[in-house]
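Researcher: If convenient, please comment on what follows.
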Amino acid sequence: MPKNLEISFLLDFYGDMLTDKQKDVVELYYNEDLSLGEIAAHSGITRQGVRDSIKRAEAQLLEYESRLRLADRFREISQSLDEIIGLAQEIERINDRFGASNDIYVRTSQIVRVARQMEDDHEVTGEKSIGI
């Protein structure tokens, strides 16, 4: 993942652990794509102060991830759910081709529904409601 997307992603998980000023500066830089000069004018600090604050915040976000691995786990769970959905859909296709068992179709549909619900719940709780 490119660094700007990675930092933005980590900010979703650990942003509340930064100071308000660091969080604001990093959000403006990575999510709003403002320049150091624009952020400096907005925040009332120097460009160098903005740069230093961003670098400190980046280091903290990366440190939090190296210790807690919440973003990594989020990605792993998302990939596993995608794989579960794909496999269940493959079973449905095979069932249609070779036997058309209604029981298999019902169960695979349930698996896909549950996995999609978990995916939706995971997206909501994984990024914004960690409660750190």
